[in-house]
Amino acid sequence: MSKTNSGQVKKSSQVVIVKGKLDISRSGMGYVIVDGQEKDIIVKPNDFGQAFHGDTVRVQISKDNGRGSRIEGKIVDVAERKQTEFIGGIQVSKNFAFFVSDSEKPVPDFHVGLDKLNGAVDKDRVIVRLVKWAKGDKKPEGEVVSVIQAEDINDMAMKELLLEAGFPLSFDDAVMKEANDLSDVITREATRVRKDCRDILTFTIDPVDAKDFDDAISIRNLDNGCYEIGVHIADVSHFVKPGTALDKSAYDRATSVYLPDRVNPMLPEKISNELCSLRPNEDKYTFSVIFQITNKAEIKHKWIGRTLIHSNHRFTYEDVQEVIEKKDGPHHPKALLLLNNLAKQFRAERFAKGAINFSSQEVRFKLDDKGKPLGIVVKESKESHQLIEEFMLLANKTIAEYVSKIKINKEPIPFPYRVHDTPSEEKLKPFVAFAKKFGYKFDMDNQAAIAKSFNSLLKEVEGKPEQHVLEQLGIRTMAKAIYTSENIGHYGLGFEYYCHFTSPIRRYPDVMVHRVLQECLDKNLKPDKKMEEKCKHCSDKERKAMEAERAGNKYKQVEFMQDYVGEEFDGIISGVASFGFFVETVLHKCEGMVSVRDLSDYDDFRLDEADYALVGMRTGRKFRMGDQIKIKVVAANLAKRQLDYHWIPDESEGTVSTVKNNAKLAKGKKIKSKK
Known about the structure:
By secondary structure, the chain is an alpha+beta fold. Helix content is about 30%, strand content about 30%.
């Protein structure tokens, strides 16, 4: 068996097997998407084998007549499941039970043994987990994980989002057993091989509702005039060992998922909220970077290694912000003010060296006990957030720089870098042309000049009407950050070397970083030949988690706006397309669409891509991204997670009837007078 340059696996000169992702259309036809291959492989429903929509599969090509013709194939193996839990209905009879999925994509019925019903009865709505699908069996076998109560509509909606994104809702028994068997006792061996930092002032700073505290900061004065500042990270790799059920589960998930009303954790709560959470007044295992820093933010010395810490206090961001603003507080105000002063210097230095100062607004929902949104709050990034951000960035950069210098046979050691590519010229050029219309100039001579131009623009645009649109469009020109063993640096942060080290409770790449780092410290290197494959998996799961989080936010926005159908709001045009424009309400940041169909009474609107606008062909009326307008909420569809708005003309444009009459005049039609 040999491998071709395109990644195809040949068994013989006639048979070709390729690996790709199965996409099943609503009609039931399947398409396998193969990286680097222009044409998808068509797979008929009878040839799916044991694959579900979204699975990574191996497909044997059965028909390929060359260039221009369609390629057909048959799935011979499932390499990786996208989804193993499903929502649907259970049908129970005297001798057997079947599960029927609610999925929009075709899913075969599951056979469920009567001993696997977990309390479910006929016609219950349930969550079922795939147990096995033996070769030769027509149907997969499943077991009921839980029964969905009729009143838990919000709960069900969030669970569906997680399952569709490929994140299991629960942990297998083997995973839970391993987690529950772990001990929180600090052993004598640990105190011997770790630096003991338990007598140094240490605290955590986190959101008010956080339970998994995976980073802490320590601080003390040194005799040489420097400050010793430690960034201490939960030592997840002490508990989660390679080859265990815990490790496999964490890798498969690769990330925690944060929805408006819950966290779907990467690790069981015993680990994430107890053993590894750096809770106050408890001794904990940590992996640390300890710096000696002058009051001018000059780093004189760095130490990396495993430690023991004892957090003295748990701060919320609000606590720290109050200390910063009042210059005083009940717990360690001098330490907090000193750390903030250093963080501001680090931040200023980063931007001076080419980091780009993008900021984006996030929303947080106030929910009742059933998960129904009662209000929406826009989260601001304040100095307390930036304090923690700067020290975490410093630790991440320090670890990446350290590992990058270590070589095996003059080759870099495989390592999961966090990289961010430079903006593509294709995306940048239209943005630069658009910014020029507002009077902002861009130097595109080199990447450093582009970064400097971005920062100048972001500073100049602050507080102006065009701020929102230029910030949003600027972010869209940027590449997506990913994990890879091929380091190209992090353009947005302005770092030559960068990784994720500081959140191992919620990100698997951080666990990978900890393991490689310990090998480097021990001088016992075991290069991972599958590092790039693991990086790609983590990047894919991160993207899926972000999509689920966006969908969760959208669901809650639609649910919130259901109470405001018929009401008018101020909004900002947040996007344009040939079929209409998107509007985000100023008050709640809830995005909906004004359809071009609903504008047809006023004019015939066409998309002007260069101007990010819809333009009326007769009147010249423009709806441009960033424009402030008034809208009415006309529909809120929870099933589709969709808000529909109507445009309300402002006073300068007259009433709706005036606008319509002006449009008719532009067409040369007579206007009937109302009696």
